[in-house]
Amino acid sequence: MNILKKIWLFYYEGFKNMPKWGRLMWTIILIKGFIVFVIVRSLFFPNFLKTNFKTDKERSEHVINELIKISKNDTIISKH
Amino acid sequence: MTQLFLNIDPSLVDWSRAQFALTAMFHWIFVPITLGILFIIAIMETIYVKTGDEEWKRITKFWMKLFGINFAVGVATGLILEFEFGTNWSNYSWFVGDIFGAPLAIEGIMAFFMETIFIAVMFFGWNKVSKKFHLTATWLTALGANLSALWILVANAWMQYPAGMEFNPDTARNEMVNFWQVLFSPVAINKFLHTVTSGYTLASLFVIGVSSYFILRKRELLLAKRSIVIASVFGIISISALIFTGHGSAVEVSKHQPMKLAAMEGLYQGGENAEFIGIGILNPKKTFDNNEDPFLFKIGFKGVLSYLINFDTKTFIPGINDLVYGNPERGVPSFEERKMKGTLAMNSLIKYKEAKEIGNMEEANLQLEILKANFNHIGYSYVEKPEDIIPHVPMIFYSFHIMVFLGFLFVLIFLVYGWLTLKNKIDKIKWGKPLYILGIISIPLAFIATEAGWIVAEVGRQPWIIQDLMTVGAGVTKISSTAVQTTFWIFSFIFTALLITEVSIMIKFIKQGPSNSAIK
After folding, report:
1. B368 and B396 housed in the same domain
2. What is the pTM of this model?
3. Chain B window 54-113: which residues touch A at a Cβ cutoff of 8 Å?
C-alpha cells in the first residue's frame, strides 16, 4: 500500500469513526466557515485596494495621496 | 477618549477601532487556552507514555477533548482580523507592506500544516500510530501553535516599535531590510514571551478551575488531583516567566513608548525616584494642563518605578507633561518639536513626489534625505493638538493594575493548590469549598487579566496605529461608517453566539466528565 493511500485511509477512517462530539465540532467548524468565508468576507469585507485599483502603482498612488491629504487637511475633529 | 482624525468622520475611526477591538478580544478568548493547554496535555501524555498508566491516558484524552471544543469554536476567528485589515485599514495595510505580509504568510502556512497533520494525528491517531509517534504529534501541535502565535506577535510588536525596515516613498510601503531585526527586536521577544506565558497561565487556571469543580462535586478525584499537580507546577513556572517578561516589556515600553508607561502609572509630572502605584483611584478632573492632583486616593511606593525600569531609584521617568511640553534637561523632546519634524518629513515627501514628477532628481534626492532624517516623527504631522498624543489614562491605568493584581493572586492560587495537592490534602481540607470556588472563579479572572493586558498594550499605543509613524486616523479606509457599524453588530452577534456555544458545550462535557463521555 503506498503512502498516499495510507494517509487517505488514516483521514477517512478518522472521520468515519469520529465520536458524536467530534461530528458536532465539525458541524460548528463548517457552519462558521460558511459564515466567515462566504457571507462575511464576500458581502462585507472586499479588499478595498484590490477592488478599487487595478495595479500596485495605482494603489501606492492612492495611499500616498491619502496620507498626504490627511496630513495637510486642517479640518480637525477632536472627540472625547 | 481623545482622538484626532483629520478629514475623516470620527465615528468611522471609532467604529473601525471598536470593530477591530471586538474581533481581537473575542479571538483572544480562544487562543490562550489553546496555547497553554496543549503543553499541559503533552506533559500528561508524556507521563502516560513513560509510565504506561492508563489513567494518565484517560486524563490526557479528557483535556484533549476540551481543547478540541475550544479549537473548533475558536478556529478562523482570527481570519476576520485579516479581512478587516484589507477593508477597514487599507492605508495602514499598504503602508506596513511586507513587514506584515511575511510573518502572516509564515503563520498561515504553519497553522495549515499544524492543523491538518499534527492535530489529525492527535485525535485520529490513538491505536493507529505508535505511542511515541502520537506523543511527538502532540508536542509538535503545541510547538506549532506557539510558533504560529510568534509571527502574529512579531507583527504586533513592530507596530509598537517599528524596526528593520525602510520607507519607500515611491511605493508608499515600508520594506523589510533586516528580517532579524524585525524578528528579534527586544519588543518582539518580550511581547511573544509575555503573551504566550499569559496563555500558559490562563490554561493552567482553566485546568485548576475544572478540576476544582470535580473536587467540589466529589467526582473524578484522581483525575482532578493529577491535573492540578501538572497545572499548578506548569502554572507557577509560567507565571514566573510571565512576571519576568512583563518586567522586560515595561522596560521596553519606557524606551519606545514612554507615554504608555506614564499612562500605566498615572504619572503626569516625571522625575527621579518615580513612584509605583500599588492601588489608586484617579482624579477624573485631572488633565495634563491643570494643577489637579492626579489621584483621589493612592498607595504608592516611592522610587520603585524608577528602580523597576533601570534598577536605580535615580532613573528619570518622564511623565505625561514632560512628553507634551518636553524636558530639555532630560533630553525629552516636546510635542511641538516632534510635530515640527513630522511636518518637515511630510513636506519633504510632498516635495520629493513633485520633484520626481518633473524629473528634477537632484531636488528629489535632497528631499529624500530630509524625509529619511525625520521619518521617525512623520506620524506627528497628523496630530494637531498636544492632548491628542495622550492615550486614555484611566482605561490604561486601571487595566494595568487589574492585570498586575490578578497576576499576584494567581501566584497565590498556584502555590496553595500545588502545595495542598502534593501533600494530598486538596480534597480533605475543612475550608475547601471557598478554595474550590476561588479555583473555578479564577477561570474568568484569568480572561479578565489577559484581556486587560491587551488593553494596556493597544489602547496605550493610541493615537498611533504604528508608533510615531501613523495615527489610527491616517490608517483607516474612508468607507461609510454605517457599513462598519453594521459589521460591528453582526460580529457582536456571531461572537456572542460562538461564546455561548463554547461555554455551553464546554460545561456540558465537563459535567459529563471523562467516565461518561465516548472518547475513542
Report:
1. no
2. 0.91
3. 65, 68-69, 72-73, 75-76, 79-80, 83-84, 86-87, 90-91, 93-95
